[in-house]
Design goal:
The radius of gyration is 32 Å and the shape is elongated. The chain is of the alpha/beta class.
């Protein structure tokens, strides 16, 4: 029997309580005894510095032995808030090796009798959390006494959150949940707010970390409990949270609690207006190309497939896609230009590379030295535009946050405007043949369709009005100017030819 008990998963029922002296005994008594048949169940009553007898009553119940599970009772000496209280409880669950933690409210708003249904759902493979939803069963919220304004607010907020997060939850605002403790270990819930929108932030984290969430219908109960939530403030915080998460996903803002580190910053942009597609369009068919910082080889693969080009790629790590290159050279560009005869190439690509280098000036000078004897090689180069209007607005509101991707990528060492990027190349001995602004990569942000195409067209129209303000990226076509030694050789050659012609003319005249 003891061995069988040890093999059962461990569940902690976390009861967050504040001034719940009238309900805490009933909540504890209603926890189904049958839970012990499927798991090793323990209860933690976490009193958030109540001003009534909540803690004393919970202690008496603990000492009476009326609850058929081990009961822990703790009291915060300082009120931590709804979210802060949960953080402590989840930390307790992690520290003491529980497998699951169920969140219950001490005021009895959520039925403990539903615990078996939620627990059965969370034990399915790959499930990180199960939420009790009052909105899954049509009309249940109304029959349970949820006020009309709360039903409407819940619907509107949940609809908005689903749209922004691309989810399909029936409700974001239920406080009845069971989490896998393993899932909690993987997300930085400790960085979340201590306020009531903690529940929204933890949902956002589960979604961003691509963890599976299930919903189970639960009954709605509204009694004489005191609502301590400021509805307007709560709604504003909820919308602000999901908008920050969405903005971070597209590289506009950065918040550590939503920093997933999931994606590669290098994604194909060859099929919409971008430096990738511009490079593929400009390079003539059959050209020889050197792709410095080739990453996963998206541009190289397109040049080979669409233009029949011969492409040599250089980067620290080989591209994952096979067949993207004719030849790969493993080399860290921070160590300079690889030992190659660059004059053999018609084009050199530096797409979204310069901003990652420790010393762009030194690298560009070395590139010019390597190309100074070449009269045919064109360099195509791009970088983010720090003068982009979104960055300026962020500065206006006191924001300058680096993130996982975008113009303020954490891996970027330098930031450029059109003017400073031009100076970088001109002062190294290049001539900028053409300069173009690139729009925001909307297709990487939204589902592709009419709205995405319209956004790209609108952005390109704005770029034609103010390139420095509305360009998300800078794209230059540059060529190496001949060195002074080359110019001196040209002068000597031209002088010799002219002298020879004059000598011929003199001989003919005489």
């Amino acid at each position: 029997m003891r061995e069988a008990a040890r093999n059962k998963p461990r569940l902690l029922i976390l009861i967050v309580a504040y001034n719940a002296e009238n309900d805490i005994e009933s909540v504890l008594a209603r926890v189904p005894r049958a839970m012990s048949d499927v798991c090793q169940t323990e209860v933690l009553v976490l009193d958030d510095s109540s001003t009534d007898a909540t803690f004393d009553i919970a202690i008496r119940i603990q000492q009476s032995g009326r609850v058929p599970f081990p009961v822990h009772v703790l009291c915060n000496p300082v009120n931590q808030g709804y979210g802060g209280n949960q953080k402590i409880g989840y930390h307790f669950a992690i520290k003491h090796g529980f497998d699951y933690v169920a969140l219950l409210h001490g005021d009895g708003q959520y039925a403990p009798e539903c615990l078996p249904a939620l627990f059965g759902a969370v034990r399915q493979d790959g499930v990180a959390a199960v939420f009790g939803s009052r909105m899954l069963t049509k009309g249940a919220a109304r029959r349970g006494g949820m006020p009309l304004y709360k039903r409407i607010g819940n619907r509107i907020l949940s609809w908005t959150q689903n749209k922004l997060l691309r989810t399909r939850l029936s409700e974001f605002h239920s406080g009845y949940r069971i989490y896998s403790v393993d899932a909690l270990r993987k997300i930085p819930f400790h960085l979340n707010t201590n306020d009531f929108h903690f529940d929204t932030e933890i949902i956002v984290q589960l979604v961003l970390w691509r963890m599976r969430i299930l919903e189970v219908p639960i009954p709605t109960y509204y009694g004489d409990e005191i609502c301590r939530v400021n509805g307007i403030k709560y709604a504003a915080n909820v919308i602000r949270t999901v908008m920050i998460a969405r903005a971070q996903d597209v590289g506009v803002l950065h918040d550590r609690k939503f920093d997933v580190h999931r994606w590669s910053p290098y994604r194909s942009k060859v099929d919409f207006p971008s430096p990738h597609s511009a490079a593929v369009r400009l390079v003539p068919r059959g050209s020889s190309v050197l792709d410095l910082g080739c990453a996963d080889g998206y541009v190289s693969a397109a040049l080979r497939a669409q233009k029949g080009c011969t492409v040599v790629g250089v980067d620290k790590i080989p591209p994952e896609a096979s067949g993207a290159l004719d030849r790969f050279i493993e080399h860290d560009l921070n160590e300079g230009i690889p030992a190659l005869d660059l004059s053999q190439f018609d084009y050199v690509l530096l797409l979204d590379v310069v901003e990652h280098l420790a010393s762009p000036e030194q690298f560009v000078t070395q590139l010019q030295d390597a190309l100074k004897l070449s009269r045919k090689t064109t360099v195509l180069v791009s970088t983010g535009n720090i003068g982009f209007i979104v960055n300026r607005l962020m500065l206006l509101f006191g924001q300058f946050n680096y993130g996982s991707r975008g113009i303020l990528d954490l891996t970027h060492t330098r930031l450029f405007t059109f003017a400073s990027f031009r100076r970088l190349f001109e002062q190294a001995g290049f001539r900028v043949r053409s300069a173009r602004g690139m729009p925001v990569p909307f297709p990487l942000v939204w589902r592709r369709g009419v709205l995405t195409r319209a956004a790209l067209a609108a952005n390109e129209a704005l770029i034609s009005v103010s390139r420095g303000l509305f360009s998300y990226q800078i794209f230059f076509e540059v060529e190496s100017l001949p060195s002074l030694e080359c110019l001196l050789d040209d002068a000597r050659s031209a002088s010799a030819k002219r002298t020879a012609r004059e000598q011929v003319t003199d001989c003919t005249a005489s």
